Amino acid sequence: MLRLWYGYKMNNSQYSSSSLIVIALAFISLCSSAVAEMREWSSSKGKKITAEAIFVGETIVVFKTDKGKEIATPISGLSNDDIKFLKELKAAKEKQHASPDLNKKTEPETEPTAKPTAAPKAGLLPLLADGKGRGFHAYYEGEKYIAKVNAKGVLTIQYKEADGAILPKWSIRIYPDARRITEAKTISYKFQKILKHGNAQMNPAEVRYTHQRDGDIKCEVVYEFTPDGFTTWTRSDESPETPPEMIHRLVHTVSKPSKISTDKSFLKKMKLKQEAYSGNDKKVDFLEEDRLKGDTKRYEMTGPILAKTKLRVDRGSAKEAKLLLTQYPGCPLESGFSFILRKDDCKTRDHQNEKATFTFK
Question: What is the pTM of this model?
Answer without folding.
Answer: 0.67
